[in-house]
Amino acid sequence: MADLKEIEEQSAQAVSELLEVSRLEEGDLFVVGCSSSEVLGEKIGTHTSLEVAEAVYRGITRVLKMRGIRLAAQCCEHLNRALVVERETCRAFSLEQVNAIPQPDHAGGAFATTAWKQMKDPVLVESLEQKASAGIDIGQTLIGMHIHPVVVPVRVGIRKIGEAVVTCARRRPKYVGGQRAIYDERLM
Questions:
Q1: For the chain, which ranges sit under pLDDT 50?
Q2: pTM above 0.90?
Q3: How many Å separate Cα 186 from the centre of its chain?
Q4: Structural domain count, the chain
Q5: Domain containing residue 73: CATH number
């Protein structure tokens, strides 16, 4: 069995490092895609584990809550990568609620199911409409479509959580103005 405490700590460290680079502010939206199967070293969708998902969730939310960052938990492709968010987040970002409840083995996945159970007032939204400011993809779940353009990859010290490949990304404002423009280094 996987070392759940180590998975929790790896998750927290990866998100902490990403937040340092991303310069997110309180109230910003952070998206997480996580395959518990991949964390266990198995093919995505084949060995769902609520225990692994809960460890990842604890590590990530511990860091996000300290900074006042909002979580969006991505479901699997069987729910078209819909996302679990707090109702308050749905309203704050003017998102469209849809009707489904994620399940660990059928549609949604273990991480989204865990988020649904742990959040105070969860709802499912079909899309974030590219309003996330950063995110972490644990196990190649494909989160890029949820992040505000322009999406920039971020390398963190944690390359894997358990056995799952970790990919981090953040947004940056688009460059405009061409070769004569001068850019604000703090936004790059």
A1: none
A2: yes
A3: 24
A4: 1
A5: 3.40.50.10360
